[in-house]
């Protein structure tokens, strides 16, 4: 069915909007970047409001069913990401909601141990080949978390920090005074309202706020990269995984034939086993696994199309597997992700743009806010196992009163694809929230925050940073 479109425009009448809150810091979006921002801004003494369009916090880590925090260590097993990331994992661990390789196993090449983790939930995320050791496999520090416990834990953390949380609230536009952001308009069941803030943090992932603020950005997407693909994620339970594995191993040709048939029908031929702690009956599908195509995640018709198609394909897969693959007889769809997955999109042009050159440099910036493991780039990773990210990647080049702390940080697409994942976004949030609170308390613009003071503040919070001059 083709959409009936129109080219007409209409003028919206100006009207008075209720200012429901005057805060120090307003964070828009409650995903990894947003929760990092809000918790640290509030802990830093700023009166902080967080608005999130859905009913839960966590963004893709919960609502997208992407419950993996990878690359917390480099390939040798040395941990680099600490700070709020580690605090969240510790809190999840205390509630039985986290799984990760034991510390003593990080970096091991012991084949028995490597195989143990490979065969556990989300296996491959715990293992990387080390080019420095002739491609031997080693165990990494990657954590997997339970999304339902995480939603509750993040609510607790946000409340403990004293953040004023508004769920079901969709940030629409910044309130501008010249080139400075002074707050946001948002829509909810309570109607259109405004919140004023001294600093606004765009943590929408898609950069909804910085675009409207007039910040320069790069929206180009390469259809060959996963940053351009939308994902529909499904968890299926009641699977006898051992029986399915036995069928696959004993009749590989028959299994391959059936998967071909499934693909022709539009289903997903691959899945990952276990979502947490070795559950032996749950599997994970996402739609990157079948002929991915670039989608414009800012186009509501495209979002609608991908959601309808993803759901259809999930059902085709489930019905086919149940009928044709031993082990799936008693399976059922446990959950489909409440939100479509995306890991790319617009990237703000900041005071610094992280590029491929930085992947091959060991430069420690004077405003480094996080050290990230550079694990997925073969020879480059071997020579440069880490990369420093400067605070300037969160500061839009021209617009004031605004920071960007999410996957839309200032970077080229080729770099963004590696460093826009959940742990870095939490870390960007931790830096942005800290800087926002500092900016408010000293009455200066975020771009003027003193790098040395920011460094000291982050180190005091347990962030692992190299010394700066
Ligand atoms: C299929 C797939 C697999 C992936 N695998 C992994 C993986 O294994 N590990 C990993 O770490 N990363 C993975 N990623 C990437 C990762 O999920 C994202 O890059 C990461 O979640 C980005 O965090 P964020 O805070 O920038 O954005 P998001 O997680 O998208 O969070 C943005 C939040 O803002 C809210 N929001 C958006 N717009 C508005 C608005 N206008 N007003 C109010 N609220 C708004 C959203 O509802 C959401 O809660 C994967 C992504 C996909 C799609």
Descriptive terms for the model:
alpha+beta; 469 residues; binds flavin-adenine dinucleotide; 13 helices
Q: What portion of the residues fall into strands of 2 or more residues?
A: 15-25%
Radius of gyration: 23 Å
Count of helix runs: 13
Which secondary-structure class do the elements indicate? alpha+beta
Uncertain stretches: none
Count of β-strands: 20
CATH topology of the largest domain: FAD/NAD(P)-binding domain
**First-to-last CA distance:** 62 Å
The average pLDDT is 94
Question: What is the highest CATH level, the class of the largest domain?
Answer: Alpha Beta
Walk me through the structure.
With 469 residues, the chain is α+β, with helices and mostly antiparallel strands. It has helices at 32-43, 83-94, 111-118, 147-161, 208-212, 241-250, 252-265, 300-324, 356-359, 378-383, 413-419, 422-442, 451-460, and strands at 18-28, 48-51, 68-69, 98-99, 127-130, 136-139, 143-145, 164-166, 170-177, 180-188, 191-202, 217-218, 233-237, 272-273, 283-286, 332-336, 347-348, 368-373, 386-390, 402-404. A hairpin with a 5-residue loop joins strand 5 and strand 6. The radius of gyration is 23 Å and the shape is globular. The protein binds flavin-adenine dinucleotide. Flavin-adenine dinucleotide is lined by residues 28-34, 51-54, 59-61, 64, 66, 68-70, 170-171, 203-206, 208, 231, 286, 288, 341-343, 406-407, 420-422, 425.
